[in-house]
Amino acid sequence: MTTRNQKGFTLIEVLLVMGLIAILAAIVIIAINPVQQFKQARDTQRWANVNTILNAVHQYAVSNRGMIPGNITTTATEICKSDATNCTGLLDLSSYLTANELYLVSMPIDPVCPGGTPACDANGVGYTLKTSSSGNGRITVDAPQAELATISVTR
Questions:
Q1: Between 42 and 6, where is the model more confident?
Q2: Alpha helices in 33-132 (DSSP H)
Q3: Which whole-number Å values give the CA distances from 124 to 19, 23, 24, 117, 147, in the listed order?
Q4: H/E run at residue 141
Q5: Which of 63, 80, 86, 147 would bridge 39 by S-S if both were Cys, CB 3.0 to 4.6 A apart?
Q6: For residue 79, what is the enclosing H or E element?
Q7: What is the pLDDT of residue 59?
Q8: CB atoms < 10 A from the CB of 135, how many?
Q9: More confident residue, 114 or 19
């Protein structure tokens, strides 16, 4: 009689290991949640952009004896891109903030604009700006496309 010495794994062992790997992979993917991570990253960029725009407006006001750009109204209006050729219906701040790169090199653009959402105008940056109706000089910059929480800063 000859005995065969078989080496290797049985089908049950292979299937069991594959099942455990699939369960562990599912747990890791759920724990990491890449969709949530991307949303947080885009919202972090929006916070930075909103503060950049607000700082530029305030730097302009400091340089001009407290006067803010004259075309800012009490109605929240989307800001026009720095290099846009048509700013109809948008708030054009290029002559105030980006001219000669004095306060901004270019207007920051929302991470999903203009092509990612219909809420953004083709010539807009995705952020809105308005001044207080009480005349106290407070400026509000909003990020309407924020995904996880409202992004609005007033100074």
A1: 42
A2: 34-63
A3: 50, 45, 44, 12, 18
A4: strand 139-143
A5: 147
A6: strand 77-80
A7: 96
A8: 8
A9: 19
Grouping H, G, I as helix, E, B as strand and the rest as coil, residue 129 is: strand
SS3 content of the chain, % helix, strand, coil (to 5): 40, 15, 45
Least confident of 63-67, 73-77, 116-120: 116-120
Mean per-residue pLDDT of the chain: 91
- Report the SS3 class of residue 69: coil
b/e code 67-77 from CB counts within 10 Å (16+ = b): ebbeebeeebb
Judge whether residue 1 has pLDDT over 70.
no
Q: What is the pTM of this model?
A: 0.81
- Please determine, for residue 45, whether its predicted confidence score (pLDDT) is greater than 70: yes
What is the rounded CA–CA span in Å between residue 124 and residue 46?
Answer: 14
Please tell me the distance from the alpha carbon of residue 106 to that of residue 82, in angstroms, as a whole number.
Answer: 6
Q: Considering only CA atoms, which of 140, 137, 46, 55 is closest in space to residue 97?
A: 55
| Domain ranges for the chain | 40-154
